[in-house]
Amino acid sequence: MQIISTIAELRTRLTTERAISFVPTMGNLHEVHLDLMRLARKHGSCVVASIFVNPLQFGPNEDFERYPRTLEADCAKLKGMADVVFAPAVNEMYPENQTVYIELPPIANELCGASRPGHFRGMATVVLKLLNIVQPQVAVFGKKDYQQLHIIRQMVAQLNLPVRIVGGETVRAADGLALSSRNQYLNETERTEAVFLSQTLQAMRQAIENGGRDFERLRRQAVEALTKRGWAVDYVAVRNRSDLLPASPARQDWVILAAARLGNTRLLDNVEVGIGA
Ligand code: PAF
Q: Residue range 181-203: average pLDDT?
């Protein structure tokens, strides 16, 4: 496994590769990332992982400075899983002030985008840069960040990028909690409570599968149930899977998405429901 920090060296290393499978990350790797690496291996003979904490996707009050940087431990975890790790410094990715951004569809300002203005614009901009730098045939992203994956798919389709986007299933703990690097911030009581988020989404899914189509009532009940137990709910939403717009009862492929804070920790989860789920 080679660890490369410059774009020029990476391009030279990858010139002869014909089946590159790419997993972009911000490091602080855990089981979810390793699962994406295993998926990437199925799609390419050369697996590249990037580790880059992207300042563009953090708001002024977010934790860019405090975001864990664990390059050595990350590389140890990637041994045998990645052929190349691309770990550039900020001034390698942004040698000058970045003034060119991707303009995203309105959905980028809803759901997580509503409480994190500019987040998806910064995320999409770095993903586009990374795809241009690595030029993979396949790139793998987790479904846990469902809105992020949707926006990337839109960007790739509408800008005709020559890459196939593969979504990795959400990895869950035995009790159903979606695995996330944020889970490490939960204390013991919060960790026990945290599973209630996925249970709430599963209950909504069950209700929809049983024929429930009053999505607004289901949404309100979920928010009430979470709030009663001390969660600060950012959103619970039932959306169409294809465009992430509010769920239309005439369709049958939906996703239920939620973000809510337990103490100081913001947790995200989603479940697909209906046809093909
Ligand atoms: O999901 C992430 O870790 C980041 O948003 C990504 C896709 C690596 C872009 O910085």
A: 96
